Every structure is written in C-alpha cells, then in structure tokens.
C-alpha cells in the first residue's frame, strides 16, 4: 500500500489522511512520524496534524516514543465489513470443526484484486511454520485457495494474471500458463484443489470453494498439511466444511 | 458512535470523513446516503463527496441501490490493530482448544472505555442463542469477562461505572455497588469469575484474565454455558486456556 517517497501526495485532505492509514501494512504495523512522512510524501507538519486528528478519533493510537499503530476504533469499524461480519461468521464453525478433526491449520481466503487475501486462519495442533496471517495477501496462482478462486473468476482475470507473470515461490509453483489453465479446469471439474508445495516448501494444501446464496464462489476454504502426507484423504473433510460454510452463508439474512 | 442529526458536524474535512465512518455501527452496518446525512448532520453534497472518496479508496463499498458498507481495505487496515494482530493471534489456539474441549461458545474480551468489547468469538457445538458478535460491546458490570476486566482496572474506573449506574440486563445482573465491589474482590482473590445470568437469561459464564509479558491484565477469556449447568467444573479449563494465552502473548516479539 506504500506509495513511496517520490509519489505525488494526494491533493485532497481526505486523500492525504487515507494515505496515512495506507502507510500501515502487514510488514510495517507500527510507524514513527518520520516513517509516515517518508511513505506518504506529505510535509511533516501536515502529517503531524493528520496523525493527531486520527489519534484523537481512535483510528490510530500512540505506542510511546512517537510511534503509532492502528487503533481499536478503526478495528471496530473494519469488523463491520461483509467479509468479517457475514462471510467469516458463516465459515467459522465449520473451520473450527475442520481444524479440530484434522489437527492442521485452516485458512479462509477471498480474492482482493489480483491477490488472494487471508480472512481467517485457525491454528493446528502443532505450532506451524506457515507464515499466513489474517489480513496478509499472496499471489493467486501459487496456492490452493488462490487457484480455487481463480478457477471461478472471470476468464479475463486469468489472462491478466498470466500476463503479469507467474513467479516461482516454492518447488511446486505452477509457472507456465498452459499448466495453470489445465489445473483450473481440473478444479472446476472436480470441485477441489490439491496444491503441492506451491507457496511454501514442505507445505501442501487441499482447498474447496465456498458459495453464497446465489451459488457464486465468494471464498475458498483450505487445510494446510505437511508435504509428506497424502492429500487425497483430506478432500472429503474440506469439501464437507466448505459445503457447511456455504449453507450457513446462504442462510444469512440480507440485512 | 452515531452523533445524531442535531449534533454539530465537525469542522475539519478529516473530522467529517471520520464522522461518516463512525456512522456505520453494529446495529447499522449498511447505510444509504440519506442515513449518513441524518447521522452526521453533514450537507448532502458534502456527504456525497466524502462517500465517493471513501469508496474510491476502498474504505467503503457500494452494495447496490445507493447503499454502502465498510470495505475490504478498511478491514485490512483495522486487522493491523494490536488487539487483532497480537492479542487475538496469541489467544486463538487456546480458545480453539477450550471450545473443542467444552463444546461451548468462547469469548475474548477487552476493555474499551467504560464498555467491554468482543474481540473474538468461537462457536460451540450447538447453534447458540448468545447474541455476542465480534466488534460488539456490552456493559462492564453485567458479564463475567467484563467483571474480570473491571477487577483489574484502576479503582477510579469502578467508581465511574458505579456513578453511571448499574442497569439490570438479566435476572442475575449485579445492580448495587457494594455487591459489585465484593464480587471484584473475589475475582482478584480467586483468579476467576463465575457469572450467573448477568447479561442474558439462561446463560452463565466462567471467565479468567489474560496477562501480557509485564503481568498486566489486558483481556479476559470466557466460556459461555447454559445456566442449568454447574460452573465450577469449567474453572480449570478456562484458567488453563487463559494461562496458555498469557504465555503466548508474553512470548510475542515487541515488533
């Protein structure tokens, strides 16, 4: 989200304030005023005034020595977003069951532009080395849930993602367009995705789509297992949990 | 968070934009432009311009027929808040274990001013009638986790909350100051709280404090059980889960 020090800062006051919020990221969750100035390109006095107003409202909070983090009030507003309030609430009970039955990490993932975004992550029985985190994103082509979402996206998105390149992240990453298209066909045909060490070496996933009340694929559910295990036995449990989440999501009142 | 139509709208552009975000709430997660105008007291043209800029950035999203909800990008920024990124991540695995072992709803709660705020809620084995929801708040005096947090708050906060009144929410709500102070003493002495139908009729809770690396109580963990059950047998499991969360929280790098 960082725009870089050489970017033109937005002209509107609100645009500048949103730029300050956007300076905080998964890799920089805590920033000094000087960092905010560097990322946004705002004059220090302007940045200081905006930060003070954001702190007063509760969008940011001061954490000592002139450092800032995102505040509780902004978290509360963000928790009103449909992916948190509707999707996550529908998916959570089946996710808990899937984590309890398999003992492995379980992910809930949605598409955010060209990337796949972790909406929820439940722990497995062992402290895992998977570097997933709620709010973090990853490439669409290099993971099981990413490919499930891609398989059910408009064809143009697949073309755009192929055109942007398919970088290798791990030994199993699909890096050529024909193999990716064939894998997406398989996902649409079978209703699930087996992904072998595509994002992280030593880690594989089994993923399945979650649909809303109109049958649209809105998310993917995945279980993360050591690459040494056979994946096929996890398929029924993942499909069952995804079906339970879909059913719960379809039942949600429109509000 | 609503300020009401008769409130003076803030003078700064940023203050007005924050007022628009603050118009969204747990009871009003989706608003039409006319609702936003009514809640903020902004002129319609100003509200429209602010909403358009918030939508363009991703803080809000349009959901058809001129209605708006909180957007995915604001959720992502909110997920960077320490209660989500540090506290919730530390507490989640023991919460999953507590929900799996007991089969009941599990809550993670922090203090937000004079109120207690649900940071996380895991499901029990049965569809529950508990009206808890992530991001929703409740009175401090009328629940187990609220009383745990109150027991470990500055004494002045207890006085302030008593002065604001102790309304009855359910048959078991503590409504007089002496009984409340005595209950808080018990919590500090025993290290846990049994709460009998204080917030919701038919529902009781067992709660225990979560401490950070410096031993400060930063949150409360609670299991929610039918009022017909004996609470004492749940105490060791809740205390153990709270201790595991505290240990994990103390291990977190400061970043």
Automatic annotation (TrEMBL), chains A, B:
Residue ranges annotated for the HTH iclR-type domain, each copy included: 11-72
InterPro entries in the record: GAF-like_dom_sf, HTH_MetabolicPath_Reg, Tscrpt_reg_IclR_C, Tscrpt_reg_IclR_N, WH-like_DNA-bd_sf, WH_DNA-bd_sf
Chain coiled-coil ranges: none
Name of the protein in its database record: IclR family transcriptional regulator
Annotated Gene3D superfamilies: 3.30.450.40, Winged helix-like DNA-binding domain superfamily/Winged helix DNA-binding domain
Keywords from the UniProt entry: DNA-binding, Transcription, Transcription regulation
Lineage top rank: taxon: Bacteria
Residue span(s) of domain IclR-ED: 73-251
PROSITE patterns cross-referenced by the UniProt entry: HTH_ICLR, ICLR_ED
């Amino acid at each position: 989200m960082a725009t870089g020090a050489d970017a033109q800062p937005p002209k509107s006051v609100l645009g500048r304030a949103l730029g300050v919020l956007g300076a905080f990221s998964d890799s920089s969750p805590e920033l000094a005023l000087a960092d905010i100035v560097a990322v946004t390109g705002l004059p220090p006095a302007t940045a200081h005034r905006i930060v003070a107003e954001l702190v007063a409202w509760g969008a940011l909070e001061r954490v000592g020595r002139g450092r800032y983090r995102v505040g509780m009030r902004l978290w509360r507003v963000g928790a009103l977003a449909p992916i948190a309030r509707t999707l996550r609430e529908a998916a959570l009970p089946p996710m808990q069951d899937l984590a309890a039955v398999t003992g492995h990490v379980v992910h809930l993932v949605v598409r955010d532009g060209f990337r796949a975004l972790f909406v929820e992550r439940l722990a497995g029985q062992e402290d895992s080395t998977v570097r997933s985190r709620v709010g973090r994103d990853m490439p669409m082509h290099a993971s099981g849930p990413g490919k499930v979402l891609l398989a059910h996206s408009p064809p143009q998105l697949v073309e755009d993602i192929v055109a942007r390149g398919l970088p290798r992240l791990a030994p199993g990453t699909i890096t050529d367009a024909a193999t990716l298209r064939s894998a997406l066909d398989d996902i649409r045909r079978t209703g699930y995705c087996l992904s072998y060490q595509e994002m992280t070496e030593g880690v594989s996933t089994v993923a399945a789509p979650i649909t809303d009340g109109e049958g649209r694929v809105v998310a993917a559910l995945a279980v993360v297992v050591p690459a040494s295990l056979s994946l096929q036995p996890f398929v029924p449990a993942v499909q069952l949990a995804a079906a339970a989440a879909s059913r719960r999501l379809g039942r949600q009142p429109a509000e």
